[in-house]
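re: ur question from the group chat, yeah i did fold both. here u go
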Amino acid sequence: MIPDKPDLSQIPKAIRVFKKPLPIRATFAESSGICSTLEGDVSYQAGDAILTGTKGEQWPVKREKFLSTYEPYEGTIPGNHGLYTKKKILVWALELDQPYQVNVGWQSDAIKGKEGDWLIQYGNDDYGIVRRSIFSETYEKQS
């Protein structure tokens, strides 16, 4: 059983991965709201990035975190709507062997994963869940 706020570096089945540098669309919210992600509703504030992934899935990222972890792609001006790629940052990932729920690291909104999905730990108390099919297309194991 996975604890509520696990340190994936201490779980033997966890692996180190990074997000492939695939271009994704980012828009910046004009007002606060709620984004319906595949894993549950997540709130965001004005200025936060709303990202659209390879399957049309969306998720919000705090503006400061987004600007420090994503790079503009092909002519996009930093901080403006456009295409971005994730910087090569190693994170921990654990394939879920049962349903699991975790709070988004930067707020208290809960997201849910099912067996086969991946729990991602971006930092201390900073988690995400990625669907199995999306994980295999967008993440790569550390070599």
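okk and heres the other one u asked abt
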Amino acid sequence: VPNKKILLLPDDIVTINTFPFRRENKFYNVKGEVALPGLYSIKNQYYTTKDAFKENIKLTDAASVYGIFVERDSIKIPVKGKALYLKDNDTLSFEPEEELVLLNGDIINIPTFNNTVLITGAVQQESIINFKKTINFRGAVISSGGTTENADFKRGYIEYQNGLKKSVRSFFGIKTFPKVQPGSKIVIPEKDENKSKTSVGEIVGYTTSLVSIIALIKSL
């Protein structure tokens, strides 16, 4: 019990250590479109994102369930899941698919819903278009006038609002494209000219090898 009275202010955090198993106090931060942003205690060494959302995090109506991520050491860790409406007070909650164990200093970010898609890179015109459920990867690129002559479409990728990236895949010549979501950024890289051009040294090497093979055949 403290010897003197301390006036508590909003957002103050009072912690009480349990003896004899005293442990260092650890916290995670919640930012963005939530009812009560701020610092929260990591209750045990196995405290996860599922625990955090279940106990402390309620989303505002402006929150993006596609863009939630944990920031750790300036690295985005995507948090995928599904939105849930609590029947008791009709508030928006979120249930992560995976249980990421939270570490001291982690920041859970819930960004504002973004109803656009950015198309950039080797396209005729960089564009921002409104998201529609019918829009797909190829259609979004076409809406930007298509690709330029030096575009490397097979290396195209999409970056989601939560930091997750997915690339165009090809299997036996059949391309599959990642799904477009609100707040996505589609990037079409340019071709690597160094890979497409054969250097003088490589030509000399190929010629030397060919001459050696011909000489070997003649000697047989």
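fwiw on the second one: The mean pLDDT is 86. The first strand starts at residue 27 and ends at 32. idk if thats what u expected
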